[in-house]
Write a structure and sequence with these properties.
Elements: H1 4-15, H2 17-46, E1 58-65, E2 70-72, H3 76-86, E3 89-102, E4 116-123, H4 127-131, E5 137-138, E6 153-156, H5 158-164, E7 175-178, E8 181-188, E9 201-204, H6 207-210, E10 221-226, H7 232-249, E11 266-269, H8 270-274, H9 279-310, H10 312-320, H11 325-365, H12 382-408, H13 412-418, H14 425-461, E12 472-478, H15 493-512, E13 517-523, E14 534-538, E15 551-557, E16 569-572, E17 586-590, H16 591-597, E18 607-612, E19 615-616, E20 621-627, E21 644-648, E22 656-663, H17 667-681, E23 686-692, H18 693-698, H19 702-736, H20 738-746, H21 751-784, H22 792-822, H23 826-830
Parallel strand pairs: 4-9, 6-8, 15-21, 17-20
Antiparallel strand pairs: 1-2, 1-10, 1-11, 3-4, 3-10, 5-8, 6-9, 7-8, 12-22, 12-23, 13-22, 14-15, 14-18, 16-20, 17-21, 18-19, 18-20
Helix pairs in contact: 1-11, 2-9, 2-11, 2-12, 9-12, 9-14, 9-19, 10-13, 11-12, 14-19, 14-21, 14-22, 15-17, 19-22, 21-22
Length: 833
Amino acid sequence: MVSIELKYSIRMLLKKPLFTVLTMLIVAIGLGLTIYSFSLLNSLVFKPLYLNNDKEIVAIEGQFDQNHLFRTPIDPYHLNLAANQLGIFEKHGYYTEGTTFIGGSDSKHPALFYAQKMNSAYISWNMFDIASVKPFIGRAFQQSDYVDGAEPVVILSYNAWATYFDSDSSVIGNQLSLDAIPGRIVGVMPEGFSFPDSAQIWQPLNENQINPTQASYTGLFAFAQLKDGISIKQAQIALDGINKEIASTLEEDFSWRIRGNGDYLLVMPYKQASIKQYYNIFIALFVVVFLILLLACINVSNLLLARVNERIKEVAIRVALGIPRKKLIIQMLWESVFICAIGGGLALLFAAYGIEITNNMFDQTFAVNNQKPFWWTLAIDNTAIGILITSVVAMILVTGLVPAIKAMNNDFNAVIKDGTRGALGKKAAQTGKILVISEIVLSCVVLVMATILLSTGYFASKADYGVKTENRLTAQLQVSPDKYPIRRNTEDQYQDTLKRALVYTNIKASVENMPNFTAAAIMSQLPGTGEGTSYFEIEGRAAAVYNENPYSNNEIVVGRSWDALGMKLLQGRHFDHRDIEEGVYNLMINESIARDFFPDGDAVGQRIRRVGRDGASNTWNTIVGVVSDTYHGSTMRSSSASYNSYHPHDNIGPMRMYIAVHYTGNEADAINALKQAVADIDPAVGVYHVQSYENLIEQPMKLLLSVSKIFLFCGVVALVLAASGIYAMAANNILQRTQEIGIRRAIGAPDRKIMSMFIKQASMHLTIGLALGIVLAVALISYMSNSLIINPESYGIALVGIPGLIILMVLIATYVPTKSVLKLEPSDALHYD
């Protein structure tokens, strides 16, 4: 049987539908954004990675390289040493990631007639054991697969098996071309398994790589399970001790492994390691969402408190008639239960919709390279549902029980005797001031952060990178390691280098002979991509300390690649046959280096060399030309550079390069022509990540831009909540002082003076709220600036525009209700009920 209090609550809510709907929406938006953000952050950052085991998988690697935005691998020799001495790991293993081309013109599978680029994970034999996942057909790797001379073997992901082998189980035991080297398929992993990140195939590391007998140049990433009772913090304390031991015994050739204050082997949650560069941004997002939830709670509390204030006389009369206060509290609590429960249901729908949009956004972000981490698929799990239920209950208590108890503590005799809205007195007015200031602080923080992130992303996407991108198609090229091996420290090393270099030279010529291409550029990284800088020393001008030298981005270039990008040769000559001779090291610099360090125009003929923590390179490079400026890397990245040096590819012969072609006609024909031009030179050369130049430039920013869009939504929500909340609280506070306004007017105070009094009070609230809000916002932005460069214009927009907007909102929220009360006759204001 429905209680009288419940029926009464429903009737009172239906009596004011606008108030009811508005309050439910505020609850739904605040809770919906909270559940959405929790699901996002939990999947991407906070939830430990367990896979099929009950023990968390942790990552072990070196200190993140902020200069190049690289995760740093470690020497397995040192980790094996630490594992044996410390005994803190249950199990540990190694991996490195790369790309492998499977198939080719001799493939028996039609889908593999053209070699397909796969994200390949090279792993230690125990990886599947640590992950507690077995192939669903075939076998896992065995230790015998890791010894020198073992037959190359490969395990396929479920998706690769289904896509390229038509889910044919008879492929087990068949041979497959792996970078033109025959390898045998021994297993297929279960659907959805892509550990360590986005692997499509797995290949074994060599035993000598994972169990070296001494320190070496080998660099691998590690994963582990800690022993029972060992936390990540305890494990790091133990590793800190052995890091000092390693640093003290490390030979000079390997001193580069130790960074900062002896940091080397670092253990951290696996997911955190994978997004180290963006971790601060995600934490900032968590703070923003928490602040929005506070905004929603404050708004709902204020609305319900205002509603209680409006009904204070009714409550006083019911108390006077003998109705127990407990029943009245329950009746008012029921209103909050209805509002928060229905708002919570709507919040679940809002969060589910946001998650669907975000999953699609992530799929688009990683559509070109297929490198979306396997855990980046969001869902509302039981934990999120539990948080929603807990939040609804907490909101009911905060927004319902607290205002109800507060109302019950009033002097009802004075309320009945007076019958005016001024009966709540000083304490209510003080509470209103605190709430208004809180709204200003929270809304300022959220809006400033959202504006800075969004505008920074916008300016980065519109930045001038010094190249022409219209009608430019880009792709990545990879030569076959079987046909063009890297044999270091052998007599064949130089000839191998020239053979690889000749492939790119011939590809450039082949492309430029195509009728729908006007020019081609081949570089190690194209302008707009490729973050990372290195210090260089000018001959005769060495700095006292290596990091006081200037620094630049360094790229490898094939011949005259400038024309395809709209770049210009400003001084000197292009790369030519003179740069191929063994032992000759030439380079070109961009206009900014020439202007800033060779202002007399004498850059050509000067020599520079790279220099680092471990000293200077023995190789001096002679400047042979100066080209127009470009910007490498995103303008949002701290490791990007406007100083660029270009080296001829002939003496380097890289395995991978990027190509950009200027085409006429339509893009689809250009793609086919590009693939044909490469195949005419060597069908074994892989062509992948084919996309427009505009999309290539956007690629490094897509994740940040995606997060910026989330911040934008947070900002819009904060703006709506702040505008409605500030207006409601200001209006309610002024309404509570209706009797006071009537008295002031009755004794002759002019309306202008009364308006000025309220504006002055609002200004005080603004001063306090904006000061606190801006300080907190700047602190959070500074925290995020470790991950990206904030555009200077963004600061101006956010730190001037947002406070201006909030000032306007508060003044309107003060002026309009004050003006409304001033329209009343003083006698009416004195008895306003």
